[in-house]
Write a structure and sequence with these properties.
Radius of gyration: 17 Å
Distance between the termini: 27 Å
Structural class: alpha/beta
Number of strands: 9
Strand content: 15-25%
Number of helices: 9
Bound molecules: pyridoxal-5'-phosphate
Shape: globular
Amino acid sequence: MNQIASIGENLERVKERIHRSIHLAGREGDQVKLIVVTKGHPMEIVEAAIEAGVEDLGENYVEESMPKIGMYPSSDSLRWHMIGHIQSRKAKTVSQKFDWVHTIDSIKLARRLSRFAGEFDRQIPFLLECNTSGEDTKFGWTAWNELEWKELAEEISPLLEMENIIPRGLMTMAPFFDQPESARLYFRRLRKLRDYFSEKFPQHEWGELSMGMSGDYEIAIQEGATMVRIGTAILGERQIREG
Ligand SMILES: *Cc1c(COP(=O)(O)O)cnc(C)c1O
């Protein structure tokens, strides 16, 4: 079957697995938001995903995402999530076009996003991207060593007070493993850090945990994910390597 024709079926299969994982984890009644990652895919695939009923789409690269968001702008039934590393000079576009930002990894970026969001009269929910593994290919706040969480809390505290960006939780990427079970540790670590921040900053909402991709989302859900970011398992192999 061709790539577009399989999207509906893949989507149903992934949703079923999401429900099964929620059940396995004893999280009955919890919602897990499925974000379908369209980076590296052409417009026809974005269109097919939307036609199949997807309401949350994720993109990594600002340039690549602009034509897609231009064609399918945010609405009551469509939200765009920025899930890639954001260069400072792209902050303005991100604050104008995206509904959620999963990847705030510096105070400087946060300030710029907040300032531009203000100019567009928007308030943007965001997640702190955390590096839970220590892999130096990963972006995000240094979060792999629990002994350093106190300093981390101090470091991030200024961005909790910014006017036009609203903290909602944490995001991480586990290292790649052949065995998804090996990713569990990193997801558990993110949840623990979230619990720590909730205690430390109870005036803010820390409910969202964005973790889990095609290879490891079932484990992430068992560890408390509220948002999973899935590309390949639904849309097939990416055609464009980098945006
Ligand atoms: C590409 C990407 C995904 C989706 O990856 P798949 O393995 O295709 O599901 C999820 N999260 C981030 C941050 C990504 O860059």
